[in-house]
Amino acid sequence: MSLNINKTVLITGASGVLGRQVTNRFLDAGWNVTGLAYTRANKTHLIRCDLTNFEETNKIIQDVKPDAIVHCAAERKPDAFEKDPKNAMFLNVEVTRNLAQLAAKENIFFILISTDYVFDGKNPPYKEDDTPNPLQAYGKSKYESELVTKKASEKHVILRVPLLYGEVETLDENAVTILFKNIQNTNNHVKMDDVQTRYPTYVGDVAEVCFQLCEQRIKQNRNEVHGIYHFSGPKKYTKFQMALLIASLFHLPIDHIERDQGIVSTTTVPRPDNAALDSSKLSNELGIHIEQADFETILRRCLESFL
């Protein structure tokens, strides 16, 4: 079969911050793209689909007959997860199980987007074969989703990424951009953590990794593209440091933001102090080298329209 024949990818969570970038990357490369969304399925290339309805989901996949599935959909807000753990667990684990099993049955290349929160942050940087020890329900659900993915097929890929940021439709769509809302609201005094380290990673770069993984596995027939991979931005920040950076980019006051260096309250959802991911396997084993976006440049571009 000619390598020039268009391939087809199906993307879950295609209306989200990451899903939109993954969709655009494959479209730009000439792939046939079908995106699944639910509450925001109102754009081209998007099909409204309730992923928790397995009969509906499986019919769409069997009709589309994709060569690859990139599974971006998840409940990825730890605080929201704790409020509704049953439904969040079902979305993160059982939906993943259904997709991974169907992909294995239909010989579809499957990529699960996972998280650095599968680690406890006590012994960074973490390699792909380090033992997970999640601290909260969200991390436990993502680790469980990894296990069901691997059980479905050893040929599947799990891509762990840290804190993501990128272009948003609303500031509260992303954990980085929402800081801008706190900074702008000068009447609201807030504390921001200056202990836990994060590695903000641009969704456009993650989309490029997903694209290259699919190109290698499907178009180049590289069967060694399977298993767990890490990808992370290179610069580390605390939440307070990110807020300082955002304020400086737009020359905004930050007197109402208090630096919090204390022990995290037991009433908050526990998060790893430093779950840095070692991303060298992608480049060393697969030759995937990403020239990553500059955090400050992308932040300015993403936020300037919200001034």
Search tags:
307 residues, alpha/beta, 7-stranded parallel sheet, two-stranded parallel sheet, 10 helices, globular
Fold and architecture overview:
The protein has 307 residues and is α/β, with parallel strands linked by helices. The chain contains 10 helices and 11 strands. The strands form 3 sheets. A 7-stranded parallel β-sheet has the order 3-2-1-4-5-6-10, with helices on both faces. Helix 1 crosses helix 7 (203-219) and helix 4 runs parallel beside helix 5 (137-152). It is globular. The termini are far apart. The mean pLDDT is 92.
The proportion of residues forming helix, as a percent range, comes to 25-40%
Our count of helices gives 10
Strand content: 5-15%
Strand count: 11
**Backbone CA Rg:** 19 Å
Average pLDDT, to the nearest integer?
Answer: 92
> Going across the major beta sheet, what is the strand order?
3-2-1-4-5-6-10
Cα distance spanning the termini: 51 Å
- SSE-based structural type: alpha/beta
- What overall geometry do the principal axes of the alpha carbons give? globular
Largest sheet: 7 strands, parallel
Low-confidence stretches: none
Q: Give the helices and strands as they follow along the chain.
A: EHEEHEHHEHEEHEEHEHEHH
